[in-house]
Amino acid sequence: MRRLATLLLGLGLVLGSGASHARDKHVLWAVQGQHNTVYLLGSIHVLRPDDAGLPDVAQRAYEDAEQLVMEVDLDDPLEGDPMAMLEEMQRMALLPEGQSLRSVLGPDYAAVAERAKQSGLDLAMLDGFAPWFVATSLLQVELAKRGYTPEFGIEQVLVARAAGDHKPIQGLETAAQQFGMLAGMPLPMQKRFLMMTLDESAQLDQEIDQLVGAWRTGDTAKLASLLSEEFDEFPDLYRTLTVDRNRAWMARLTDLLDDRDDYLVVVGALHLVGDGSVVSLLEKRGFKVVQQ
Predict the structure, then answer these.
(1) 14 found inside a domain
(2) CB 169 within 8 A of CB 74
(3) Could you give the CA distance from residue 26 to residue 216 in angstroms, rounded to a whole number?
(4) Domain encompassing residue 59
(5) If you write DSSP's letter for every residue of 110-160 in order, what string do you get?
(6) CA-to-CA distance for 270 and 282, rounded, in angstroms?
(7) How far apart are CA 212 and CA 174, in angstroms?
């Protein structure tokens, strides 16, 4: 479930704070500033049509907010263009000259090629790309087969609504920065990332149900356990993907809490649970953070 959690709840592409078992709560927190409220909504990046839609409490947070802040500003003409983002992702996923996916995977290439073929991916067409790109592509294909697409994810739903309501959207980082985190992994780690993605794909249906269910019911204990598993398997990677990014966002978030507008901040749910989460970091700075 580790790679699946990253795609759905981490990148747009925690123990400690918050309630751990309350089913009448949601993956949504309110933070009181000097003159405003900043809402923190944990997102799931891809959903099916039947799962789409915000809980009432999140709807009210959206209505209360004058501005939205997301991991990436999807309202920006460049950041919000799926084809432009795909081109940027592919550019950053290219292997160095003289290397190939076949050479990186070595004796595991045939098994990976067979598994990719079952998903409808021709590995020969991806021979110039890094293993992380193959892993994320494989998951995206498998999720799309099951009806999970970014179109129905929380960000896209809110972007469409904000456009109609003329609410400004800001980004905490760029898509290129997100891709760069994955591209920065050493190739042996990328290979391991890919091989474990293949292993986990056999239980994909059950894991999706558990993941979306935990998100829907505000089960922060379940989400925190997922993040704990992530750190156990890939401590360096997930420290980069979660905790380091959370810390990098702190200056921006504390600035928002010094504003007079109310904000709805939408980030992957894994950023809001566990030690080192946005929630815990704000609490350590003296802010009162209340799960809704």
Answers:
(1) yes
(2) yes
(3) 7
(4) 2-89+132-291
(5) HHHHHHHHHTT--GGGGTTB-HHHHHHHHHHHHHHHTT-BGGGSHHHHHHH
(6) 15
(7) 26
Q: Could you read off the pLDDT of 28-83 as tens digits, one per residue? A: 999 999 999 999 999 988 888 887 778 889 999 999 999 999 998 877 655 557 78
Query: What domain count does the chain have?
Result: 1
Q: What is the mean pLDDT of the chain?
A: 85
SS3 for 235? helix
169 lies in some domain:
yes
Q: Is residue 104 part of a domain?
A: no
What does the pLDDT average to over 19-25? 50
pLDDT at position 208 over 70 = yes
Q: Which residues contact 126 (CB under 8 A, 6 or more apart)?
A: 101, 116, 133, 134, 137
Assess contact for 218 and 272: CB atoms under 8 A.
Answer: no
Angle between helices 131-145 and 187-200 (to 10 degrees): 20
- Please, which pLDDT band fits residue 227 given cuts at 50, 70 and 90? low
Q: Which residue has the tokens 């469409």?
A: 160
At 258-267, the pLDDT tens digits run 999 999 999 9
> Are residues 135 and 194 in contact, defined by beta-carbon separation less than 8 angstroms?
yes
Could you tell me whether strands 263-268 and 28-32 are parallel, antiparallel, or unpaired per DSSP bridges? unpaired
Long-range CB contacts (within 8 A, 24+) of 98-102: 100/127, 100/128, 101/126, 101/127, 101/128, 101/129, 101/130, 101/131, 101/134, 102/127
In a domain, 98, yes or no: no
Residue the block writes with tokens 């030690």: 275
32 phi/psi in degrees, rounded to 5: -90, 125
> How many whole angstroms separate alpha carbon 44 and alpha carbon 28?
12
**What pLDDT, on a 0 to 100 scale, did the predictor assign at position 9?**
59
Q: Which residue has the tokens 């494989």?
A: 138
CA quadruple 227, 230, 236, 237: dihedral positive or negative? negative
